[in-house]
Amino acid sequence: MTMSICKPLSRRDLAARIARDIPEGWYVNLGIGIPTLIADAIPAGREVILHSENGILGFGPAPAPEAVDPWLINAGKQHVTLNAGGSFFHHADSFAMIRGGHLDLCVLGAFEVAANGDLANWATSAEDSAPAVGGAMDLAVGTPRVWVATEHTTRDGAPKLVERCTYPLTAPGVVTRIYTNLAVIDVRDGRFVVTEMIPDLSREALQAQTGVELHFEVPEYA
Known about the structure:
By secondary structure, this protein is of the alpha/beta class.
């Protein structure tokens, strides 16, 4: 079967897929882009404590338009809500939490991920608007689990999963799992291991959109 009859996950569906895998009680930082949508998709009744590097712990989903608090935002400058027991603190204290290893997981976007777990997610050229790597560097090296949320390819169809990153690295060897709009892929021993694919997608079609050899733990058309 070809990609023409497959329906890749939307950004919100991808965020919901990731949210289902976050265990009860984990402290989690959500990066800018697709990861921020996870806050709206945490399963009902599951306690996941969300952290934002601008100094919030325990924030919730985006508010209704009539309930927006202009002072309550995440690191991506998006409006959020505050759950019961949530707190605010200094920016320096927030990074002490990150660098001290007190988070269980961070979910970041990516321009490229290499088979050895290298992550590039802040710049694609010297002309990019981002002046520096920013807080993603601290999150990537200070958090024991780094998951990536991204489309499988660029808008031009170039693979984001590659043998070696060509863009400036955010951190080397840190990514443990990748969620794309086509598949769930673990990073193990320098290899990409596919553990889940969207319905009606063949292994050949997924491999054709990937810049490095994939290893499969799922049956064809699972």
